[in-house]
Amino acid sequence: NVKCPNVVNPKMSPNIVIGNPDELAKKKAAIRAAGMSSLQVIADFDMTLTKYMVEGRRGQSTHALLSQGSSDYDRKRQELFDFYYPMEISPLIPVEEKTKLMETWWGKSHALLVEGGLNIENIRKSVHKGTVGFREGITDFFEILDGENVPLLIFSAGLADIIEEILRQKLHRAFPNIRVVSNRMNFDTDGNLIGFVGKTIHVLNKNEHALEMAAPLHDEEGHAVASNGNGASFVKGKKNVLLLGDHLGDLGMSDGVVYDNRISVGFLNENVENWLDTYRKAFDIVILNDGPLDYVVELIHELR
Ligand code: TMP
Ligand code: MG
Q1: Closest residue to atom 4 of ligand 1, CA basis
Q2: What is the ipTM of this complex?
Q3: What is the pLDDT of residue 89?
Q4: How far apart are CA 43 and CA 145, in angstroms?
Q5: What are the pLDDT digits (tens) for 28-86?
Q6: In DSSP terms, which residues pair with 193 in a beta bridge?
Q7: Ligand nearest to the CA of 244
Q8: Is 161 a catalytic residue?
Q9: What is the position in ligand 1's atom list of the atom closest to the CA of 201?
């Protein structure tokens, strides 16, 4: 665990870092004055709502945990990962060039999923077997938002169908206030993947107006368990934002929103010594050491 010199409240967990407490207090007061009906929450999925380490192993992203029932195709997608991921995290590639590379990666990876065959059963099994777990406190987090009628958009460059299967398998109930904005699969009537819906979301365009892609959550029989409506109308008129992410790029998730106040929470999962200073400046609140969502739940209580 990293010792943190910046703890403003001695009663607070040493895993919480607040760069500018006065600024945060002002934002909290402004949101409280506007009321909960003004609030929307935008959260990244992988390593933000889910844990970085799961039972001693590195947690898997939605793309990574998917096994499409053909070891050949799983290997081909892994080879793409080995080739493109170092480019994703490279600070040396200019953003325009990197955007093209990421488009190519996502395009090839999704094409392999279609070409190699994938059905809904593969998704269920992959999620069941995958190394993935929600952060502690997730149920309290979802419940307080639901109780207050605060919409939660889960915004991810991963796979919507996997995220929704994880929600179904790991939670005891459905939450009508949640929408998933992510890459969504299109299946034929036999449950075989035939393509993807709409524009691809990759790590560098998570900031565009992708909200239109948010579709209702479906249960296993394909019935909507949440009401219809796209992401944009879902959060319409909500002028205050609580944003949760684990990468600096996740701060762009609210770029399509015209907001009055935004409180951002950053989960700093790796390389803490090198990144803490940058995260402290970029996010209002930084959570270290794969910490739980308790502080975020507490914050929402304080906004009421
Ligand atoms: P995000 O969920 O934080 O928005 O990022 C998605 C991650 O998915 C990104 O870091 C790269 C990863 N990824 C894979 O692991 N395999 C793939 O085939 C693709 C296209 C992406
Ligand atoms: Mg993430």
Answers
A1: 157
A2: 0.96
A3: 86
A4: 13
A5: 999 999 999 999 999 999 999 999 999 999 999 999 999 999 999 999 999 999 999 99
A6: 187
A7: 2
A8: no
A9: 4
Pairing of strands 53-54, 57-58: antiparallel
Q: What is the pTM of this model?
A: 0.90
Q: Which ligand is the nearest neighbour of the Cα of 183?
A: 1
Residue in 169, 161, 181, 165 with CA at minimum distance from that of residue 42: 181
Tell me the CA–centroid distance for residue 203 and ligand 1, in Å: 7
What tens digit of pLDDT does each residue of 164-203 get?
A: 999 999 998 999 999 998 999 999 999 999 999 988 999 9
Helix (H, G, I), strand (E, B) or coil at 3: coil
Residue 228 has a pLDDT of 31
Here the tokens at position 271 are 């390389």
**Is 156's C-beta closer than 6 angstroms to any atom of ligand 1?**
yes
Q: For residue 266, what are its two tokens?
A: 């950053």
CA of 11 to the centre of ligand 1 (A): 37
